[in-house]
Amino acid sequence: MQSDVSDIFEQTLQEKKSELQACQNTQNILTCSDCDKMFECEIRKAYVKAVYESMSKGQGGGFEF
Length: 65
Fold this sequence. Notes:
The protein is 63% helix and 0% strand. By secondary structure, it is mostly helical.
């Protein structure tokens, strides 16, 4: 069961990563930090959320940097 949950989070992460990379390609940039809309970007926010969720596998908790 745990691997099924992990697979869901990894699949979501890969989907969000692909969306982010497609946006970067459309904008002709290599990184989001080169984009004027970086902090307002819903695609980037969804990707960051997917990264956190894949790290915690849905167990909650915060990540502090």
